[in-house]
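We modelled the chain as a single entity of 680 amino acids. Its sequence is:
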Amino acid sequence: QSAVTVPRDFEGCSTLRKYFGQLHYLQSRIPMGAEQEAAVPITWTEIFSGKTVTHEDIKYEQACVLYNLGALHSMLGAMDKRVSEECAAGAFTYLRDHFPHSYSMDMSHQILNLNINLMLGQAQECLLEKSMLDNRKSFLVARISAQVVDYYKEACRALENSETASLLGKIQKDWKKLVQMKIYYFAAVAHLHMGKQAEEQQKFGERVIYFQSALDKLNEAIKLAKGQPETVQEALRFTMDVIGGKYNSAKKDNDFIYHEAVPALDTLQSVKGAPLVKALPVNPTDPAVTGPDIFTKLVPMAAHEASSLYSEEKAKLLRDVMAKIEARNEVLDQFMDSMQLDPETVDNLEMYSHIPPVLMEKCAALSVRPDTVKNLVQSMQVLSGVFTDVEASLKEIRDLLEEDEAQERKLQELLGKVPAPQGSPPPPSPSLAEVGKECSKYLEVHEKASFTNTELHKAMNLHIGNLRLLSGPLEQVRAALPSPTLTEGERWWCHLPRTWLGFGGTWHSCSGHPVPSDDKQVLQNLKRILSKVQEMRDQRMSLEQQLREMIQKDDITTSLVTTDRSEMKKLFEEQLKKYDQIKVYLEQNLAAQENVLKALTDANVKYAAVRKTLAEVEHKWNTTVQTLVASYEAYEDLMKKSQEGKDFYTDLEGKATKLLEKARAACQAAEANRQQILEK
């Protein structure tokens, strides 16, 4: 009861460990396992689905307690008890390695791997924080940060598993996005400190590329951080200030002072992670943790002790095999990360066969508004007409004023008055002076508005063609979008080395598959080899799972009861032979990796030119789509500004017309006055 209602503190952890240990002592004496005589139904609630799960197996009780121990440690870790992540990882690791994964979905191998790597990643984060606060060497900080990335990549792979995604539901996407954000963020931190090390070593070209890479990765992290709390956003902004400042300073120094060549990032040695945290081991028989064995007097311990020894032999076998698998997996993961080849998107030819949904949406919207282009053109024509009328009125006013000025000058000369200085007109009448002043004001307003009007016409001319295209038949829209043209040529033969890729020990030769030199066949060959890589991965995981299940079900307690102690070692050796066949299969799978990756390297070399072509076409495709969408979105703005222009010029036209009438009247009055003077 105490273990079920455990307090959320380290006392609660102690309670769970004690109960777990006593369950271990109990199950070693009383037949309470699955389908055994004393088995009783045990019920717990699955953490993600909320379903109740019942098994008549004491190991299920142990597994649930151990899961809760890991969960409680993770909660304490979140409360700033920094050592707890390693304790949590230890509990989940022991659960993964010593208990069946079929009890419930939240104890599946993938979920436990996810939990372990999340805990180790956070523990490594704490160590990274301390190393930076302690001003440790830049290279060490970079390696510690790189290991954080490695842990989160493992967690991300577990999240991408279809079973994991199905179990977690909506939170799978949120978790995956957060983990991916952390991957990019800590990769940026690693490259920031590699850049610092390059700076210390006065390798100024390397410094620039490391800071640039850090900046690129941080930008990716910022994209993935949308929706995260303000504290995260603030941390990202701070990091951007640091990395951005470092990059700008390094680039400026190199451009103007050092002039060192900036190497490509992939030519530099990759940053290998330094795992400085580990899952703290769980020992169910440690009396300092579990307290005294309350079942010690029930049965002799000899059979149990022998069974424990055999379990250790099995665990040793599993550790040896897993060390080899993990070493090859690490090589494979690093290789595939460097290749940046996704079997699902290695060719994106399918996207070019149809109009993207965002563009279809715009075409559909315009199809129910057939007069879109016509309305825009008419609106701009009306605007041009009003603009022209205003310009004509203002020109006529200016001409009238200039003519009046000329007539006034002639009159002054006829009267024999001293002419005004060169360039200075005679003073006009008050009414004409007022007209001139207003005309100047309108001309100034018209000139400023003329620039806006010109820009508006430019914008319309820029978008009108795209709007006509979007309003037209879909076939024309599709034809306007770029698409790749892949070549076809002579064929040659690529030899993928003979490799073992079957569960029954069958040899499948990949040698002699025709790989034509044309682009399409280069793509097909690359996809075929990538499928072989995935097949190798899947087979490896399946064989590992089979081995774990065999070890889990391998109980020789009955045999141990009737075996003499002196014969125990021989019995162990005989029993362990049952694993030889699956070990052979695994060895063959691991040995095949080198050949498969060599073939993938060769295929990737041939794919380089095709990849470049596809990338360029994809960029053009995206640019074209964005341009067309922008034209659609600009339509309403153009119509609005066109109407505003019409309203403005209509108002100005009214004022200019009135001013023209006033100018005519004033000029006529001035002319009449001059005539009277001449007659006198």
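As a brief sanity check on the tokenised model: Residues 108-276 form a domain with the Serine Threonine Protein Phosphatase 5, Tetratricopeptide repeat fold (CATH 1.25.40.280). Residues 489-517 have pLDDT under 50 and may be disordered.
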